[in-house]
Specification:
The chain is about 65% helix and about 0% strand. By secondary structure, it is mainly alpha-helical. It has 2 domains: about 100 residues, Arc Repressor Mutant, subunit A (Orthogonal Bundle); about 120 residues, RNA polymerase sigma factor, region 2, helix turn helix motif (Rna Polymerase Sigma Factor, Chain: A).
Protein backbone atom coordinates (compact mmCIF):
# COMPACT_ATOMS: atom_id res chain seq x y z
CA UNK A 1 0.00 0.00 0.00
CA UNK A 2 2.95 2.31 0.59
CA UNK A 3 3.92 4.39 -2.43
CA UNK A 4 7.43 5.38 -3.43
CA UNK A 5 6.59 8.93 -2.41
CA UNK A 6 5.43 7.63 0.94
CA UNK A 7 8.72 5.78 1.41
CA UNK A 8 10.59 8.99 0.63
CA UNK A 9 8.57 10.80 3.27
CA UNK A 10 9.33 8.07 5.80
CA UNK A 11 13.04 8.41 5.09
CA UNK A 12 12.87 12.17 5.40
CA UNK A 13 11.06 11.96 8.73
CA UNK A 14 13.62 9.63 10.29
CA UNK A 15 16.70 9.55 8.06
CA UNK A 16 19.16 7.40 9.96
CA UNK A 17 17.88 4.42 11.84
CA UNK A 18 14.15 4.55 12.48
CA UNK A 19 12.79 1.77 14.63
CA UNK A 20 12.82 -1.19 12.20
CA UNK A 21 9.34 -1.83 10.90
CA UNK A 22 9.70 -5.60 11.19
CA UNK A 23 10.11 -5.20 14.96
CA UNK A 24 6.90 -3.18 15.19
CA UNK A 25 5.05 -5.68 13.03
CA UNK A 26 6.36 -8.70 14.92
CA UNK A 27 5.49 -7.17 18.28
CA UNK A 28 2.00 -6.02 17.39
CA UNK A 29 0.57 -8.75 15.17
CA UNK A 30 -2.00 -10.87 17.04
CA UNK A 31 0.06 -13.96 17.89
CA UNK A 32 -2.82 -16.44 17.59
CA UNK A 33 -4.28 -15.10 14.38
CA UNK A 34 -1.51 -13.48 12.35
CA UNK A 35 -1.56 -14.92 8.85
CA UNK A 36 -3.87 -17.76 9.90
CA UNK A 37 -7.27 -16.41 8.83
CA UNK A 38 -8.29 -16.57 5.17
CA UNK A 39 -10.45 -13.98 3.50
CA UNK A 40 -14.17 -14.76 3.51
CA UNK A 41 -15.35 -16.14 0.17
CA UNK A 42 -16.83 -13.63 -2.25
CA UNK A 43 -20.29 -15.32 -2.33
CA UNK A 44 -20.52 -14.91 1.45
CA UNK A 45 -19.63 -11.21 1.17
CA UNK A 46 -22.23 -10.73 -1.55
CA UNK A 47 -24.86 -12.51 0.54
CA UNK A 48 -24.04 -10.34 3.55
CA UNK A 49 -24.22 -7.24 1.37
CA UNK A 50 -27.70 -8.35 0.36
CA UNK A 51 -28.84 -8.48 3.97
CA UNK A 52 -28.16 -12.14 4.83
CA UNK A 53 -27.62 -12.09 8.60
CA UNK A 54 -26.00 -15.53 8.75
CA UNK A 55 -23.47 -14.53 6.09
CA UNK A 56 -22.64 -11.37 8.00
CA UNK A 57 -22.20 -13.44 11.17
CA UNK A 58 -19.54 -15.46 9.31
CA UNK A 59 -17.72 -12.21 8.52
CA UNK A 60 -17.91 -11.13 12.16
CA UNK A 61 -16.58 -14.45 13.48
CA UNK A 62 -13.77 -14.49 10.92
CA UNK A 63 -12.41 -10.99 11.39
CA UNK A 64 -13.39 -10.01 14.94
CA UNK A 65 -10.20 -11.37 16.61
CA UNK A 66 -7.87 -9.34 14.37
CA UNK A 67 -10.02 -6.21 14.52
CA UNK A 68 -10.21 -6.51 18.32
CA UNK A 69 -6.43 -6.83 18.53
CA UNK A 70 -5.96 -3.73 16.36
CA UNK A 71 -8.45 -1.68 18.39
CA UNK A 72 -6.84 -2.78 21.64
CA UNK A 73 -3.37 -1.85 20.42
CA UNK A 74 -4.64 1.65 19.71
CA UNK A 75 -6.92 2.25 22.69
CA UNK A 76 -5.58 0.00 25.50
CA UNK A 77 -9.04 -0.13 27.04
CA UNK A 78 -11.10 -3.33 26.86
CA UNK A 79 -14.41 -1.58 27.45
CA UNK A 80 -13.75 0.93 24.68
CA UNK A 81 -12.67 -1.89 22.39
CA UNK A 82 -16.04 -3.57 22.83
CA UNK A 83 -17.78 -0.30 21.93
CA UNK A 84 -15.51 0.21 18.92
CA UNK A 85 -16.13 -3.28 17.56
CA UNK A 86 -19.85 -2.79 17.84
CA UNK A 87 -19.60 0.46 15.88
CA UNK A 88 -17.23 -1.13 13.34
CA UNK A 89 -19.61 -3.95 12.53
CA UNK A 90 -22.61 -1.61 12.37
CA UNK A 91 -20.69 0.56 9.90
CA UNK A 92 -19.55 -2.52 7.98
CA UNK A 93 -23.09 -3.92 7.73
CA UNK A 94 -24.37 -0.60 6.44
CA UNK A 95 -21.43 -0.14 4.07
CA UNK A 96 -21.22 -3.63 2.57
CA UNK A 97 -23.71 -2.89 -0.25
CA UNK A 98 -21.21 -0.25 -1.45
CA UNK A 99 -18.14 -2.49 -1.02
CA UNK A 100 -16.75 -3.18 -4.51
CA UNK A 101 -13.88 -5.45 -3.62
CA UNK A 102 -11.16 -3.05 -4.79
CA UNK A 103 -9.26 -4.01 -1.62
CA UNK A 104 -9.42 -7.16 0.49
CA UNK A 105 -12.34 -7.25 2.91
CA UNK A 106 -9.90 -7.44 5.82
CA UNK A 107 -8.20 -4.23 4.62
CA UNK A 108 -11.57 -2.49 4.34
CA UNK A 109 -12.59 -3.63 7.83
CA UNK A 110 -9.27 -2.56 9.35
CA UNK A 111 -9.68 0.86 7.75
CA UNK A 112 -13.11 1.18 9.39
CA UNK A 113 -11.57 0.06 12.69
CA UNK A 114 -8.83 2.69 12.56
CA UNK A 115 -11.33 5.37 11.58
CA UNK A 116 -13.61 4.41 14.46
CA UNK A 117 -10.71 4.39 16.94
CA UNK A 118 -9.71 7.85 15.74
CA UNK A 119 -13.27 9.07 16.33
CA UNK A 120 -13.18 7.73 19.89
CA UNK A 121 -9.83 9.43 20.49
CA UNK A 122 -11.21 12.76 19.28
CA UNK A 123 -14.20 12.42 21.61
CA UNK A 124 -11.92 11.53 24.52
CA UNK A 125 -9.75 14.58 23.80
CA UNK A 126 -12.80 16.84 23.77
CA UNK A 127 -14.00 15.37 27.10
CA UNK A 128 -10.54 15.83 28.60
CA UNK A 129 -10.61 19.53 27.74
CA UNK A 130 -13.56 19.92 30.10
CA UNK A 131 -12.56 17.37 32.73
CA UNK A 132 -8.97 18.53 33.16
CA UNK A 133 -5.83 16.36 33.20
CA UNK A 134 -6.36 12.69 33.99
CA UNK A 135 -3.98 9.92 34.90
CA UNK A 136 -3.94 6.72 32.91
CA UNK A 137 -2.75 3.20 33.56
CA UNK A 138 -0.05 2.62 31.02
CA UNK A 139 0.14 -1.12 31.57
CA UNK A 140 -0.85 -3.33 28.66
CA UNK A 141 -3.56 -5.68 29.95
CA UNK A 142 -2.86 -8.01 27.05
CA UNK A 143 0.78 -8.72 27.95
CA UNK A 144 -0.15 -11.55 30.30
CA UNK A 145 -2.04 -13.26 27.47
CA UNK A 146 1.11 -13.45 25.34
CA UNK A 147 3.71 -14.48 27.90
CA UNK A 148 5.29 -16.87 25.39
CA UNK A 149 6.50 -14.12 23.01
CA UNK A 150 10.13 -13.09 22.95
CA UNK A 151 11.29 -10.42 25.38
CA UNK A 152 12.15 -8.07 22.53
CA UNK A 153 8.57 -8.15 21.30
CA UNK A 154 7.27 -7.46 24.77
CA UNK A 155 9.62 -4.50 25.12
CA UNK A 156 8.32 -3.05 21.85
CA UNK A 157 4.71 -3.57 22.93
CA UNK A 158 5.40 -1.97 26.30
CA UNK A 159 7.11 0.98 24.62
CA UNK A 160 4.17 1.38 22.24
CA UNK A 161 1.80 1.23 25.20
CA UNK A 162 3.54 4.19 26.82
CA UNK A 163 3.04 6.39 23.77
CA UNK A 164 0.06 8.73 23.66
CA UNK A 165 -2.73 7.03 21.72
CA UNK A 166 -2.56 9.56 18.88
CA UNK A 167 1.11 8.71 18.32
CA UNK A 168 0.55 4.98 18.72
CA UNK A 169 -2.10 4.90 16.01
CA UNK A 170 0.19 6.48 13.40
CA UNK A 171 2.95 3.99 14.23
CA UNK A 172 0.52 1.11 13.72
CA UNK A 173 -0.85 2.57 10.50
CA UNK A 174 2.48 3.46 8.89
CA UNK A 175 5.14 1.21 10.43
CA UNK A 176 3.04 -1.91 10.88
CA UNK A 177 0.35 -1.79 8.20
CA UNK A 178 2.28 0.05 5.49
CA UNK A 179 0.00 3.04 4.93
CA UNK A 180 1.73 5.99 3.32
CA UNK A 181 1.35 9.42 4.92
CA UNK A 182 -1.46 10.52 2.61
CA UNK A 183 -3.52 7.36 3.25
CA UNK A 184 -2.94 7.53 7.01
CA UNK A 185 -3.98 11.18 7.03
CA UNK A 186 -7.17 10.28 5.17
CA UNK A 187 -8.05 7.52 7.64
CA UNK A 188 -7.39 9.76 10.66
CA UNK A 189 -8.83 12.92 9.04
CA UNK A 190 -5.79 15.00 9.94
CA UNK A 191 -3.23 16.84 7.77
CA UNK A 192 -0.43 14.76 6.29
CA UNK A 193 2.09 16.98 8.05
CA UNK A 194 0.49 16.07 11.39
CA UNK A 195 0.95 12.38 10.57
CA UNK A 196 4.63 13.05 9.79
CA UNK A 197 5.27 15.03 12.97
CA UNK A 198 3.47 12.55 15.24
CA UNK A 199 5.31 9.64 13.67
CA UNK A 200 8.68 11.36 14.01
CA UNK A 201 8.10 12.07 17.70
CA UNK A 202 6.77 8.55 18.30
CA UNK A 203 9.76 6.93 16.63
CA UNK A 204 12.13 9.03 18.71
CA UNK A 205 10.40 7.94 21.93
CA UNK A 206 10.40 4.29 20.83
CA UNK A 207 14.08 4.35 19.97
CA UNK A 208 14.91 5.92 23.32
CA UNK A 209 12.75 3.41 25.21
CA UNK A 210 14.44 0.50 23.42
CA UNK A 211 17.95 1.87 23.75
CA UNK A 212 18.32 2.37 20.00
CA UNK A 213 18.96 6.11 20.02
CA UNK A 214 22.35 6.69 18.41
CA UNK A 215 22.35 10.38 19.18
CA UNK A 216 21.43 11.53 15.69
CA UNK A 217 17.72 11.96 16.44
CA UNK A 218 14.99 12.24 13.85
CA UNK A 219 13.85 15.12 11.74
CA UNK A 220 10.30 15.90 10.62
Amino acid sequence: MESAKGRDLVSAACPDGALPRDRVRAATEPVATAGSVDEVARPVVLAAAGGDGEAFAVIMRTYAPRLRATAHQVLRDDQLVDDVLQDVFIAAYRGLPRFRGDAALSTWLHRITYTTCAQYLRRARRRAQFAGPATSDQRDPGVADHAEVLGDRQRVRDALGRLPAEQRIVVLLVDRDGYDYRAAAKVLRIPRGTVASRLSVARTHLREALGLDDGHGSEA
